[in-house]
Write a structure and sequence with these properties.
The complex is a heterodimer of chains A (94) and B (192). With 94 residues, chain A is mainly α. In chain A, 72% of the residues lie in helices and 0% in strands. In chain A, helix 1 packs antiparallel against helix 2. Chain B is elongated, with a radius of gyration of 19 Å. Chain B has 7 helices and no strands. The chains are: A mainly alpha (94), B mainly alpha (192). Chains A and B meet through helix 1, helix 2 and helix 3 of A and helix 2, helix 4 and helix 7 of B.
Chain lengths: 94, 192
Amino acid sequence: MNAPEKTHVNYFKIWIWLVALTVGYLFERWIGISRTVALLVIFGIALVKAALVAIHFMHLRHESRLIYAIILVPIALFVILVALLLPDITFVER
Amino acid sequence: MSAQDTAATLPHGYTGKLGLWCLIGSEIMIFAGIIGSFILFRLAHPEWARLAEHLSVMIGSINTLVLLTSSFTMVKAFAATSRRDRKAACGYLLATALFGLVFIGIKSHEYAGKFSHGFYPNAGLFWAFYFTMTGLHALHVLIGIGAILALFVFGLRDRLWPIANRVELIGLYWHFVDVVWIFLFPLLYLTS
């Protein structure tokens, strides 16, 4: 089993970052910014949080390329699914 | 070379980890389907922003913090298991399960609030998506709680070390459940 001490990851520090980013969501709502910028900030924060959990808590940085392929293929399929259906569902005139 | 020969040449515990990541890959497909559908319909229905205002950002934020903290305690349980610290491992496992139960409790309270206002899964497409996505996620949380409590019981009986790698495996599952909520929260609560 992996020994997390070898990576010298400070889990508490990562948790603090995650909490701070979550508070960042709320901060975005309090300041007046345009909707597009707000959405970019919100989902940007979500991606950073997910990356922090995946890399540090799930120790993804120490995994093999096979593991990366196992998770990246479904994510790529998800992106393709949404991109291909976008014109039919989202932009159809009602 | 037979399948058994191949398994014998892999590092100890790797097959379990590989299997768990395959499970996570399949779970990504499950959630990607419903989340992708929601994104598409949400973009097609800007009026859903008014429906999303019925969701409490504060409750959702608290639930996010609860789940993030449970992820922290789960990885601490894994670290404790790695250094064979049974007391710490049991403590962190119990804490993780309790945080999970708090999450479920808050979610139940939220659901009760929605039902009391007449927002049921059949109240419209937005609510159908909301209850399906959060309900499916909550089901995964419940399964995770059960697995973590099982590990806790093994730890109490000092029978954790023969299955110590399962702390990592269940931890991976639990972190994945957290990652799903990291995306569900802004999609549902923050797009009002």
